[in-house]
Design goal:
Elements (H helix, E strand, L loop, with lengths): L3 E4 L9 H14 L6 H4 L7 H12 L5 H19 L11 H10 L3 E5 L5 H8 L7 E3 L12 H9 L7 E5 L2 H9 L3 E5 L10 E3 L7 H6 L2
Parallel strand pairs: 1-2, 1-4, 2-3, 4-5, 5-6
Helix pairs in contact: 1-4, 3-4
Length: 215
């Protein structure tokens, strides 16, 4: 029986990818070269430091490790400056409605995100009250596909993993959910997320009845 729903943030509740792109683009411009949307495809699913290495490669720029740390920090400052301007209408279709449906049905809800800026985003979207627990990058030390973030979410909700369902848009997130012993609903491509128990385009397609059918 499903008792708790755990949600990834980016790509599930909101799309912050565009803000990462313009932050990287601004950093590249400051170093004297352009960074295109095509270039940005190479950064998907890549850590901040690895993304910076790709950016520097594109620009033909060499930096010391200390300079790289400073550049990564500056990129994050750009990103934070953008997300602090976000508005509630940037929530992805159906996300608020499904979270409310879960609450009304007595299901516990948690956010499980690697982002260290999750609280800032939730505050801007006015969604904090819809989560019983928030596990973000400030609470975890291991990245997905390690299940740490979801196991901590289940613990915070006092729910057994087998009674939890995770909503994820990334392959590593699906693997993390399964490694935690949880059900998983993939949001996005069936080719990429084929290990999930159910695949949908977005939370606007999700119903409480479908949760029961996962079992």
């Amino acid at each position: 029986m499903i008792k708790a729903c755990l949600f990834d943030l980016d790509g599930v509740i909101v799309d912050t990818a565009k803000y990462h792109f313009i932050a990287w683009k601004q950093l590249a411009r400051e170093m004297g070269f352009d960074f295109t949307e095509q270039d940005n495809e190479r950064l998907k699913g890549v850590s901040r430091m690895a993304s910076l290495d790709i950016l520097l490669e594109i620009g033909g720029v060499t930096k010391t490790e200390q300079e790289k740390e400073e550049l990564a920090h500056r990129k994050n400052e750009h990103y934070v400056s953008f997300i602090t301007q976000m508005k509630p209408d940037e929530i992805l279709p159906g996300a608020r409605e499904f979270l409310l449906a879960c609450k009304d049905a007595g299901l516990a809800t948690a956010l499980g995100s690697a982002s260290k800026n999750a609280m800032t985003i939730l505050n801007r979207l006015e969604l904090n009250d819809l989560f019983d627990a928030i596990i973000d990058g400030t609470h975890t030390s291991k990245a997905k596909p390690d299940p740490e973030v979801f196991l901590k979410g289940a613990e915070a909700l006092a729910a057994d993993p087998e009674n939890c369902v995770v909503f994820e848009d990334a392959e590593a997130g699906v693997e993390a959910a399964l490694a935690a012993g949880m059900y998983c609903v993939g949001i996005g491509s069936s080719e990429v997320l084929n290990k999930a128990h159910l695949i949908i385009e977005g939370l606007h397609q999700m119903t409480l009845d479908q949760l029961e059918n996962l079992q």
